[in-house]
Specification:
- The chain is α+β, with helices and mostly antiparallel strands and about 375 residues long.
- The chain folds into 2 domains: about 140 residues, Creatine Amidinohydrolase, Chain A, domain 1, CATH 3.40.350; about 220 residues, Alpha-Beta Complex (Creatine Amidinohydrolase), CATH 3.90.230.10.
- The protein is about 35% helix and about 20% strand.
- The protein has 10 helices and 14 strands.
- Strands 7, 8, 9, 10, 11, 12, 13 and 14 form an 8-stranded antiparallel beta sheet that branches. Strands 4-3-2-1-5-6 form a 6-stranded mixed beta sheet, with helices on both faces.
- Helix 7 packs antiparallel against helix 8.
């Protein structure tokens, strides 16, 4: 079996989730986030692109309803014993089968939390679930109940994030080694992804992001490649991923001579990153970290060139993205604690001049503050 955590640890996670349900007056949870299923049971799949549902009762009992291709996936990667299959056919309504299963688990007339905000639950399927369970039980949104339990990591989870950090550094080294004028972006990506795979890592929750020239200002992956020019800028955002746990990094490389604005933006970005990391300590809030980011960049005259968020949690994530709860933005009240993990990114983009400078890395909190999981330097990369 490819279960990456002990039976005892997975049981402790479910017990933690059940206690949270009881605190909120819930009798059970309908779980649609793949990250939640993975955290609770080890179940590892991309089959959530189709309808599947995991039920966890406050009494600790659980089952999975999924499609036939994921039967063996669940058997091989999880501790789930009760795996039920809904059959693909014209007009199939797995929500009705879900209701029957819930009835057999004593959920009729009970109050169930629902993960509505999940990539695996389309609006269409969500309406089917609500229609099937109308009058059967009470459904209430509980989008963050499991996510809130996942914020503080176990020692085993932190080991995965540290290993992911090493893989991200390996990818950085591979990019630095190959990047030069005339090199195609595709070669850079292949070397970076290859470094992660060769180190025993996994696909990340989303594509590695690469862009040069004016596309260095982009924060998302897009199709299409180009070769680097003698004087260019290359923005990379990537993550090491190990057993689905991530450690992300970000950097803008300068090919040839940097422009004066690049130097100013780099100085500001490094100062902001270090100030954010200094603020990243137990007792402070997510909003405090964002304010550190904003205060530094604004003092450099870069208010109109920064974003309205500066990072987010690092954990086990699946497609479509590696970003996890919670996020650094203004006034976010979530309080930081030991054994949380985050990615802080400083993104500075000047659309008028077509210039970018980005810097980011991942850290783990302990009792004294934050410790980066990266060995890579923060020096400006000039190639």
């Amino acid at each position: 079996m490819a279960v990456h955590f002990s039976v005892e640890e997975l049981a402790a996670r479910r017990a933690k989730a059940c206690a949270a349900m009881q605190d909120q007056g819930l009798d059970g949870m309908l779980i649609f986030l793949q990250e939640s299923m993975y955290w609770l049971t080890g179940y590892d799949t991309f089959g959530f692109c189709f309808f599947q549902a995991f039920y966890l009762g406050a009494d600790g009992k659980f089952f999975l309803l999924t499609r036939a291709p994921d039967l063996r996936q669940a058997q091989h990667t999880s501790v789930i014993e009760d795996i039920q299959i809904w059959v693909d056919k014209e007009g199939a309504q797995p929500a009705l089968q879900l209701r029957d299963l819930l009835d057999s688990y004593g959920a009729k007339g009970k109050k169930l939390g629902v993960e509505y905000e999940a990539a695996g639950l389309t609006a269409y399927r969500g309406k089917q679930v609500e229609a099937a369970l109308d009058g059967f039980c009470t459904l209430v949104p509980a989008n963050d109940l499991i996510s809130q339990q996942r914020i503080v990591k176990s020692p085993a989870e932190l080991d995965c994030i540290r290993r992911a950090g090493e893989l991200a550094d390996d990818a950085y080294d591979a990019a630095v080694a190959v990047t030069a004028a005339g090199v195609d972006e595709g070669l850079i990506l292949s070397r970076m992804q290859g470094a992660v795979f060769e180190g025993g890592g996994d696909y990340a929750g989303n594509e590695f992001i690469i862009g040069s020239d004016r596309d260095a200002l982009l924060c998302r992956y897009k199709s299409g490649r180009r070769a680097l020019s003698p004087n260019d800028q290359l923005t990379l955002e990537w993550a090491g991923s190990y057993r689905r746990y991530h450690a992300a990094m970000m950097n803008t490389f300068i090919i040839g001579q940097p422009q004066p604005e690049h130097l100013h933006m780099y100085e500001a970005g490094k100062a902001a990153l270090l100030e954010c990391e200094a603020t990243l300590k137990p007792g402070n809030t997510m909003g405090d970290v964002f304010q550190a980011h904003a205060t530094v960049l604004d003092s450099y005259g870069l208010r109109e060139h920064r974003l309205n968020a500066c990072g987010y949690g690092m954990s086990a994530r699946f497609t479509p993205c590696w970003m996890d709860y919670p996020m650094f933005y203004a006034d976010n009240p979530v309080v930081l604690a030991s054994n949380m993990a985050f990615f802080i990114h400083i993104i500075i983009v000047n659309s008028d001049k077509g210039l970018a400078m980005c810097l980011g890395r991942s850290s783990i909190l302990d009792e004294t503050g934050s410790k980066t999981v990266s060995r890579s330097p923060l020096d400006m990369v000039r190639l």
